[in-house]
Design brief:
34% of the residues lie in helices and 27% in strands. It folds into 2 domains: 136 residues, PurM-like, N-terminal domain (60s Ribosomal Protein L30, Chain: A, 2-Layer Sandwich), CATH 3.30.1330; 157 residues, Phosphoribosyl-aminoimidazole Synthetase, Chain A, domain 2 (Alpha-Beta Complex). It has 311 residues and is of the alpha+beta class.
Length: 311
Amino acid sequence: MRLSDIGERAAIDRMADIYGMVTLDDCAAIDDGDDLILVTSDIVNEQSHFPPGTSPWQMGWFVVAVNLSDLAGKGARPLGVLLSLGLPASIDASFLDGFADGAHACTDRYGTAVIGGDTKEMPSVALCGMAIGRMSRDAYMPRDAAEPGDLVCVTGMLGRAGAALQYLADGSDEAALHDLLHVEPRIFAGRALADTHVVHASMDISDGLAASLYQLARASRCGFAIDADKVPLASRASLEHGLYHGGDYELLFTVPPDAYDRVSEALRETGCPVSRIGEATSNRLLLRRDGATVPLEHRGYEHFSGRGKTL
């Protein structure tokens, strides 16, 4: 049996069983008195993540941003980022300058810094980031505590990355390349949400809204009913892009109905839009659309499976 037969999620579950990991989340959480130290890692590469025309600057920004996005999903303050670069020996040395400038721009934007890493020779560009954060233990926003009756909410607009990929498939488009790669991790919004102490469950949306809802439902042992007409869509994006295409890196979270106004105000102060798109239920994942209720399809971006391939 090959990895292509089981897909990324089953591969993660398989290793987690061996490691004895009971709860899977965006970050590892390490006790530190009244605080938690959060650690996360993410790998990107030129085959899966970077279309032709991607600049070294964009690669640097992107690998930092997707790692910081995991911290944002928990509400942590970034402490530092480590970057490891796998590069062909034939690549022009100027790549390093552009890459470092992009990575530095992203860490500077979110109040942190690159603090170390590694460089090795590889046949193609592969970049591994690790982000470290800290937060108060009692403000931590897990994946596994959504409750039936909670409102389901998302930040920002969805489908931007999926629409960008569609435009890129039709030819070179600088605006689409920017939309795909200039990820803005919701660090400030995540911290504001955590400070309210009312969020039941939270994660970032990296593999598509539907895939993320299934991950949240599995962790929390609940279901969700989503209203198609309430899913906020980016310019040029369709509902298909918003539901089933990865790369948006917005936040998906649940709150009790009576806490929504408090959460909305906290996010407004950071300049981050928020939308209510449905509610948590006791079981099943459903999509309400055009007067009908149908099962929400379980699909989105998944490595190894060939589903939702980036390029």
